[in-house]
Structure formats: structure tokens, C-alpha cells
Amino acid sequence: MISNLSVLENIALIRQYHGRLSRRQAEDMAREYLQRLQVEDLAGRRNPSLREEERFCVMVLRAVMLEDSILVLDRPFEMMPALGESRFIYDIIHHVAEMHRECHIFDYFLNEGRYAEGSTHAA
Amino acid sequence: MINILESIGKKGLQSARSLRDVMSFTYMIFVRLFERRAYNSAVSMVLVNQIYFTAVQIPPLFFTAAVCLSIAFVGIIGEYLLRIGLFSFFGRLLMGFMVTEIAPFGTVLLIALRSSSAINAEIAVMKVNNELNTLAVFRIDIINYLFLPRVISGIISVVLLTCLFSLVVLASGLIYSGFFFNMSARDYMAALLESANFFDLIAMFIKSAVFGFFIVMIPIRYGIRATNELTSIPVSVLNGMVQVFIAIVIIEVLSLVITPMISKLI
């Protein structure tokens, strides 16, 4: 994440830059998706003040802001070591399902047990 | 002997490569300045923020420094001219020396001290934190998004603040000449108008714009040359700032050489 931008600006930047949207339009869109994940209170915060799960939400939202994006989650449990199982990750992906074309999760076989539901490509 | 020649050759090659890199980077940034597709609302947002940080936040410090420098210089120049019986050149010295030489030079020194170092550190920190890679992953052109707005804000800020500095110089001259040389405001204005040269003013604006371009472009270049280690940040800022001050001196000297030549041709 860009450290001198807030969460809202980090997410909005992608559409603002590629979609040629105005700042207000891009931020409204970003705010709507933050609300969808029920993390709208993060909007004004910056990267260092986020918890691991919050940072994960923001990074997923930022990734799906690219049109026709393929979401690749590379060892998500390394980013959130305290997370017990994958329900949280699937919930996030489910909430933004219509915004990305495909989603792939790559992880070690030793973490296979943590992915109790859904299909994964373990590597 | 051969070792000495080798070391001279190595240094020479290093300097030539470094100069070539600077020139190619300068050319790349300069060309982008005129590309319409480089601009969008994200770039405008950064530009507005940069102008705010560079030109709007600085005035209290800048104004104080400009007033102190102006009063000191105007006082010294006026006293000296009076002593040698050449006070009729007071207006010419104010316009030709203080406004066209000292104002851009003082402005660029103040902005370089405050903003160039900040820009250098900011870009180096972004490099260390992999933020430049993040932007590249999202296909955000770092030249358009990060560098261009900073360079434009540098040009705008230096030109505008040079004008402010010039106004402070002229106001100081008015007050000083009224109090210490018993010169009326009308005489003062007449002396200034008589000495005002349109070409000098254009040269001042061009020089300010060139200063603005380089005091931002050089720190950016040194910022992106930082490695991925935290310890490379101070090294990058140190090298960048040294190069900025060398560039300021070179531009000042070149302007002193080139401006009279062009003036004669015109």
C-alpha cells in the first residue's frame, strides 16, 4: 500500500488512474465496497495503523478495482498468521465476487487443513 | 603511471555515464510534460498536494527570509552607491541585480533546502518499502503519477515564489529608500520603471523554471537509486542534495554567461 495515502485513496487510486474517474467518483466507489465489507471505518486510516485482517481486506479491494482482474492470493495465512481457518478469506472473496474474473489461492500443503471449504490450487 | 591513468579514465567514464543518465532522465521527464495522456485526476490530485506542500506551506519561513535578505542587500547596495556617488544607479541595481539574480537564487535555495530534501527522502522511502513496485503491479506509471506532478509543482512554485521574493525586494527598497535616502515613492517608482527591462524579466522567469525543474528532478532520480535497505535512504538524500546544489550553481553561472549574449543578439 502507498504509505502517504489513506485506505480510501489507496483503493480509489486504481479506478481514478485507469478508469479516468474523478476523485469523487472513484472515492464513492471505494467507499461503497468498504461498506460492503463492513469496514468503512478504515477509510481515513493509513497502512501502519491497520491490523493484519484489515490490511488484507484493503489489499483485496484494491486488487479487484482493476477491470477483469484475476485475484491471486499468495499464502494468505502468512499475512495473517493469527487466522485459524479460511472462512474469513472466503467471506471477503464472496463479497467482491462480481468484481473479479477468477480467484486463485496458492499455499503450502501443510496449510491444506485450514482450507475447510471451497476449492483451492495448492502448490 | 598506468594505474593513475586507469583511475582517471575510470572516474571520467563514471562521470560521463552519470551525466548521460541525468540527461536521458531529464529528456524523458521533459517529453512527458507535454504528453496529454500523462494527465488524469489522480495526477492532478498529486499536483495540487505538491503545490500545497511546496508553495503554500512555505510562506511564513519564506517571507521572513526574503524580508531579512532584501533589507540587508538593499541597505548595503544603497549605502555603498551613496558613498561612491552613484546613487542614480540604485533602481538599475534593484531591478538588474536584486530582482533578476538574487530573487531566483534566494528562492531556489530556500525551496531546495525544504522541498528537495523531502522529495528525495519520500521517493527513497517508497523505493525501500516496495511502493514503487506496487504501483508498477497496478500498471500505474510512476513517471506520470509520482514524478511529473512533483516536477510541475517545482516549476510553478519556484516561479511564483520568485515573484513574491521580487515584490518583497521592491517593497523593502521602497521603505528603505524612503527612510534612509529621503527618496519619495514617486522617484523610487520612476527609477524602477526606467531600469525595468522586459528581457531581464523573461530571463528571470525562464531561469526560475529551469531551477524548479532541476531541484525536483535530481532528488527524484537519487531517490529511485536507493537500494532496498533502510540505510540507503540517508545516503540517497545526501548525494541528491549535493547534486542539487551543484546544479543550482551551474545553472546560475550558465545564466550569467548566456543571458548577456542573448541580450546583445536581441
The oligomerization state is: heterodimer
Q: How many β strands of chain A by DSSP?
A: 2
How would you name the CATH homologous superfamily of chain A?
P-loop containing nucleotide triphosphate hydrolases
> Terminal Cα separation of chain B, in Å?
51 Å
Biggest interface pair, counts: A-B, 16 and 15 residues
The dominant shape of chain A is: globular
Q: Helix tally of chain B? A: 9
Compute the CA-based radius of gyration of chain A.
15 Å
Annotation field: number of helices of chain A: 5
Helical content of chain B (DSSP H or I, runs of 4+)? over 70%
Average of pLDDT of chain A: 83
Strand composition percent of chain B: under 5%
Helices and strands of chain B, in order, run as HHHHHHHHH
The coarse overall form of chain B would be globular
What is the structural class of chain B?
Answer: mainly alpha
Q: How many structural domains can be distinguished in the coordinates of chain A?
A: 1
Describe the overall structure.
The complex is a heterodimer of chains A (123) and B (266). Chain A is of the alpha+beta class and 123 residues long. Chain A has a single domain (7-114), classed as P-loop containing nucleotide triphosphate hydrolases (Rossmann fold, 3-Layer(aba) Sandwich), CATH 3.40.50.300. Chain A contains 5 helices and 2 strands, in the order αααβααβ. Chain A has helices at residues 7-18, 23-36, 52-64, 76-79, 87-95, and strands at 69-74, 100-106. A two-stranded parallel ribbon of chain A has the order 1-2. Chain B is 86% helix and 0% strand. Chain B has helices at 2-33, 41-56, 59-83, 90-128, 131-137, 142-180, 185-195, 198-224, 232-265. Chain B has 266 residues and is mainly α. Chain B has one domain (40-265). At the A-B interface, helix 1 of A face helix 2, helix 4 and helix 5 of B.
